[in-house]
Design a protein that fits this description.
- With about 375 residues, this protein is of the alpha+beta class.
- It folds into 2 domains: about 130 residues, Creatinase/prolidase N-terminal domain (Creatine Amidinohydrolase, Chain A, domain 1), CATH 3.40.350; about 210 residues, Creatinase/methionine aminopeptidase superfamily (Creatine Amidinohydrolase, Alpha-Beta Complex).
- Helices cover about 35% and strands about 20% of the residues.
- It is built from 10 helices and 17 strands.
- The strands form 5 sheets. A 6-stranded mixed sheet has the order 4-3-2-1-5-6, sandwiched between helices. Strands 7, 8, 9 and 10 form a 4-stranded antiparallel sheet that branches. The chain has a 3-stranded antiparallel sheet with strand order 13-16-17.
- Helix 5 links the parallel strand 5 and strand 6.
- Helix 1 packs across helix 6, helix 7 packs across helix 8 and helix 9 packs antiparallel against helix 10.
- It is elongated.
């Protein structure tokens, strides 16, 4: 049990209008309690009340596992498959004085469960994702160190794989090499998105069967876990050759990425960081092809607060860690993205955690 963050959560609950928060199986539950049960259609979750007390409710098949994983101070209530879940939960909510109360929910809570529970219990369920994100939005010194290590693993993997990329490989071959190199260096849960040629025009392309060809842009977006904290970086390289237009746009993208990165300092207004990159890309009228936000927070989840986007009217603070990743995505032609993870360390200094080169690179044919 992470007592430091559990206390932060209850402190935030006391400042809110919520009577409790429900945290269903997720990275959020894992980082708070260390408990990561198998997820299926059966309802289960941790209820945390304003007074700091908590209980877990789950199916009987998970009950013993929950009892062993959670502190003795957190009782576990179970229901059996031959019972109706809501009929068992209702007296538990009454016992815990939560019937008809306002309960926040996390990102993985299933709507069909909430609808059934709300109808029977009178509870008012509310979105509490931002509250949970606030608990961990500013990282500790230990967490920042783990994020640095995770980033260095990704850097080293990229540098190891780069000389081995050439025309004729499949996107899946590049993905497998990146994952293998991260795992060799101690990264866990490693993964990679690899998109080539016209596939690179899709920001979140997730297939791997295309063969690399001379003249392709190749996007590699990858990362891993180190002690539960994520890395996430993107590099774009050119297979065998680069056209004049691709070269021009890549240099413009790199200029935009560096400018936005440089503006990400303690106290910076987040919308201004996003605008830095868009203003530069507008010089060549390609800002229309920058179809995503410029970044996202990172930590126990790959995407978490603070989101580096125009709508987020907030300033950067010590301990925040986030990506800076402008891209140019031309549908049916090519795409390119450059992504680093940036931290505002506890001394208030900007740290770029990824150090792998990002200057234009052309592979061997």
């Amino acid at each position: 049990m992470n007592h430091f963050y559990f206390q932060k959560l209850t402190d935030l609950l006391k400042q809110s209008d919520l009577d409790a928060i429900l945290i269903c199986p997720s990275e959020e539950l894992s980082f708070l309690t260390g408990f990561s049960p198998v997820v299926c259609e059966r309802f289960q979750g941790l209820f945390v009340k304003r007074d700091g007390s908590a209980f877990y409710f789950c199916n009987l098949l998970t009950g013993d596992e929950a009892v062993h994983a959670l502190p003795e101070s957190i009782p576990v209530f179970t229901w059996f498959d031959n019972e109706t879940m809501t009929e068992v939960l209702l007296p538990v909510l009454e016992k815990m004085q939560l019937s008809g109360k306002s309960i926040g929910v996390n990102s993985s809570t299933k709507a069909f469960h909430l609808l059934d529970i709300a109808e029977k219990s009178g509870c008012n369920f509310q979105n509490a994702v931002s509250l949970l994100e606030e608990v961990r939005i500013c990282k500790t010194a230990e967490e920042l160190e783990c994020l640095r290590k995770a980033a260095s693993i990704a850097d080293e993997a990229y540098c190891a794989v780069l000389p081995r990329i050439h025309a004729g490989l499949l996107e899946g071959d590049v993905r497998d090499m990146l994952v293998s190199e991260m795992e060799r260096r101690g990264g866990t849960d490693a993964g990679a998105l690899v998109a080539s040629g016209p596939n690179a025009g899709y920001p979140h392309y997730c297939q791997y069967s295309r063969q690399l060809s001379t003249g392709d842009c190749l996007i590699m977006d990858f990362g891993c876990l180190f002690h539960g904290l994520h890395s996430d970086m993107t590099r774009t390289v050119f297979i065998g050759s680069v056209s004049d237009r691709q070269r021009q746009l890549y240099q413009l993208l790199l200029k935009a990425q560096l400018a936005a990165e440089s503006s990400a300092v303690e106290g910076a207004f987040i919308p201004d960081i996003d605008q830095q990159a868009r203003t530069i890309l507008s010089e060549e009228n390609v800002d229309q092809y920058f179809t995503t936000r410029i970044g996202h927070g990172i930590g126990y989840m790959t995407h978490e607060a603070p989101y580096i986007a125009k709508w987020n009217a907030r300033k950067l603070e010590k301990g925040m860690c986030f990506s800076i990743e402008p891209g140019i995505y031309v549908p049916g032609e090519f795409g390119m993205r450059i992504e680093d993870i940036v931290a505002i360390n506890l001394e208030g200094q900007r740290e770029v955690l990824n150090q792998a080169p990002k200057e234009l690179f052309i592979t061997a044919e």
